[in-house]
């Protein structure tokens, strides 16, 4: 069960296309860039396949708004979005001569799952993987351990299968074999995707920035790019203020980051005994009592994101229990940590 800590979209609505960027003034938007976010595929990447744009149904749904509807899309915006999305999809349809597409109606939102495999990834302009592609670990025998060459080869094979114009990869704590490698030496070999390592990339005027770090945890053996508090804060301070789409592996603290503790997972009886001894009371972060779970997200990152950077979109993974989308202070947050039933999130970024 997912915790009801935040207003998280129900899973069946997570296929909807969220609108971000200049959505409140859709008339001034000149282009829509569709961003597809996946994360934490952990060696299941071979089960993800490209969804051919018109092989399934195009669902006729309203774009879903969540916490703050006006920040996502208003009524006027919804109509404009419907028209532009319709035009866009019809253009794709005529390019591929799929007559089944032209059945009328307003095409507002997503690719309905009923006609596609549950592991299909929708088409789009930019495909972003926010880390933990591998099960790589510093503890041999616990997880499959790949060397650098193997993981690069697997990533090239994976990204090459997808039709998106741009693919972006940011490493996670399971990418131990990328730790210590310079950006250029990885990028030279990773020919199928843009590797963001404390670096940025601009596409259609949208500024993307990616960094791989997660806060250090004693109970993990996958310690690639894990950092203690002070050094992680220094990395976040390097993120340019002018970032539209921020990609990290870790969530910010208190946002889609509630994880099951190691003892609750491995030794549930011991965990309940500990919790009986601890003082009872709501969590100081979210105000909820959640024994056996704690917030894994980074406090320093939260501050930087909500106060200084304020990107339109912050993409991450790492905490598998909190796959979802939420908004706060005008920032849309997406945790796409892999689950078979909800493997991707789709955003239409309005560029003016
Ligand atoms: Zn809490
Ligand atoms: Zn991770």
Automatic annotation (TrEMBL):
One Pfam family per UniProt:
Metallophos
Where is the Calcineurin-like phosphoesterase domain positioned along the sequence?
Answer: 34-322
Signal peptide coordinates: none
The UniProt similarity line reads:
Belongs to the UPF0046 family.
Task: Report the protein name in the record.
Answer: Uncharacterized protein LOC101856336 isoform X1
Protein's organism: Aplysia californica
């Amino acid at each position: 069960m997912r915790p009801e800590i935040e207003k998280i979209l129900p899973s069946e609505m997570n296929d909807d296309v969220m609108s971000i960027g200049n959505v409140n003034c859709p008339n001034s938007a000149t282009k829509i860039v569709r961003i597809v976010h996946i994360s934490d595929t952990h060696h299941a990447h071979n089960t993800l396949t490209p969804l051919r744009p018109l092989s399934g149904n195009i669902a006729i749904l309203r774009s879903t708004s969540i916490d703050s509807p006006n920040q996502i899309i208003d009524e006027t915006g919804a109509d404009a979005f419907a028209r532009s999305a319709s035009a866009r999809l019809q253009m794709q349809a005529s390019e591929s001569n799929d007559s089944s597409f032209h059945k009328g109606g307003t095409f507002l939102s997503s690719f309905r799952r009923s006609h596609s495999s549950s592991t299909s990834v929708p088409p789009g302009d930019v495909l972003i993987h926010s880390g933990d592609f591998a099960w790589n670990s510093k503890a041999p025998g616990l997880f499959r351990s790949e060397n650098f060459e193997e993981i690069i080869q697997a990533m090239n094979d994976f990204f090459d299968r997808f039709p998106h114009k741009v693919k972006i990869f940011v490493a996670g704590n399971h990418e131990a074999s990328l730790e210590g490698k310079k950006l250029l030496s990885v990028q030279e070999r990773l020919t199928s995707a843009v590797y963001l390592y404390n670096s940025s990339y601009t596409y259609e005027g949208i500024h993307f920035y990616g960094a791989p770090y997660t806060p250090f945890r004693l109970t993990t053996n996958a310690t690639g790019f894990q950092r203690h508090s002070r050094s992680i804060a220094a990395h976040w301070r390097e993120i340019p203020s002018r970032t539209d789409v921020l990609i990290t592996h870790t969530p910010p603290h208190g946002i889609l980051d509630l994880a099951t503790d190691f003892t609750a997972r491995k030794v549930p009886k011991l965990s309940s005994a500990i919790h009986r001894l601890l003082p009872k009371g709501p969590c100081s972060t979210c105000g909820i009592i959640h024994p056996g779970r704690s917030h894994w997200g980074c406090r320093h990152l939260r501050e930087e994101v909500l106060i200084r950077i304020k990107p339109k979109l912050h993409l991450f993974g790492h905490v598998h229990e909190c796959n979802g989308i939420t908004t706060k202070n005008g920032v849309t947050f997406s945790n796409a940590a892999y689950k078979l039933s909800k493997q991707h999130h789709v955003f239409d970024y309005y560029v003016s």
